[in-house]
Amino acid sequence: MIELIKKYLKSSLIPEFNKEPVFSFPSDERIGLYIHYAFCKHICMFCPYHKIQYDESIVREYTDCVIREFELHNLKSFTSLYIGGGTPSNDKYFLERILPFFKDFIKNEISLEIHPLDATSDNIEFYKSNGINFVSLGVQSFDDEFLRFIGRNHSGLDNEIALENIMNAKFDFVDVDLIFKPEKSFENLKKDFTSAAKYSPEQISVYPLMRFSYTGLGKTKNIPSREKEYFRELDKVASDLGYGRDTLWTYTLKNKTGRFSSVGREFYLGLGMSSSSFSGNVFSTNTFSFEKYREYIFKGKIPVDSVYFFDDYQGALFYSFWALYNRKLEMKNIEKFFPGGYNKILTVMKFLKSLKYLEGSGDRYYVTDKGLEILLELEEWLTYEFIDPLWSRLRASAKKSQLGEISSPTDNEVY
Ligand code: SF4
Q1: What is the pLDDT of residues 87-139, one digit of tens each?
Q2: Topology adopted by domain 28-253
Q3: 153 Cβ contact list (under 8 Å, min separation 6)
Q4: Quick check: CB of 51 below 6 Å from ligand 1?
Q5: E-strand spans in 73-127?
Q6: Domain residue ranges in the chain
Q7: Does the CB atom of residue 84 touch ligand 1 within 6 A?
Q8: What is the DSSP letter of 405?
Q9: Which of 40, 274, 395, when mutated, tests ligand 1's pocket best, judged by the most ligand atoms within 8 Å of its CB?
Q10: How far apart are CA 394 and CA 184, in angstroms?
Q11: What integer pLDDT is reported at residue 9 of this predicted model?
Q12: How far is the CA of 23 from the centre of ligand 1 (A)?
């Protein structure tokens, strides 16, 4: 059945380019807002996300464009705001404009990704006074050799200092991001997790190193069998340290609720270059080119370069995947938002339950530990079958359209 679904997705999900989507979001109660800050001063070799070299004048123009892009949508209420990048924590000008502007539209948390070198006492005070209450610290590892390998510009000691500063600031929710390389021994991962857990952040996210074709790791491959084995071991280590596996990649302190996640929203509107939006019937991705982005905005057009138009079954599959990534699918939501896909999804869930990947009733399904292993494989398959080719294409077309005033360095060139 899983192979059949993969085949079906490969043959039926084809992105369309140069088409303007019509979003019809289900309800304001369930939409998250994502803003992409697409700039970095230092480019890391492994990073697949869209970013260009920091340039103050371009950031100023970009900031205006993000606000104008928001005004193209008729949406004024969101569950949460997530500011990701790039390195948004490095830019007070951007945050000083963006945060006051959007604050009143956000009902719950305002999240920021923080680079360890930005986690100084002054900056932290600034983030807090501007309404940031959920933060994710991009530690990646405490091992200097591994940090150097992935091209980071900070050390294990910098991470310790940053984490201490962040924890002292008493944000409502702190996440620590870790990456592991399955070619190295499990002991390395265990050491990193234990080092992070020493500070008791609410959440620790753990990702296997991903190898996008256009990064410096493009010629290497994931090792899913070893990754699964490491997660099995890590579940035990984490549990002894007081953390439970909350989603595919995250562990949460057992007495805490809440989650730091850029993909945990049911529906979301993305603003800024390369950001994505999901409205149920549409999954779109904005242009990767700054010139095109600016041009779209000045013409009053939504700056989308690629769109998947979903029928109810396809939309329900997409929605279900991310719900299961968070370990729980409520079937009433499928019935409500994708009525035409309900029966097929129910059949898929019953089948997954028969394989012991899920437990629960016909109303609600939970992912078992065995099911998480299938999700890991599926997540990597989706990354390399869909996201990598799409982003590669959008990156290539952005490069062609650059007018010369900015360059979009590839990780290979920089490292
Ligand atoms: S991983 Fe490195 S290159 Fe990628 S967004 Fe973060 S700081 Fe920039």
Answers
A1: 999 999 999 999 999 999 999 999 999 999 999 999 999 999 999 999 999 99
A2: TIM Barrel (3.20.20)
A3: 42, 44, 117
A4: yes
A5: 80-85, 110-114
A6: 28-253
A7: no
A8: S
A9: 40
A10: 33
A11: 87
A12: 30
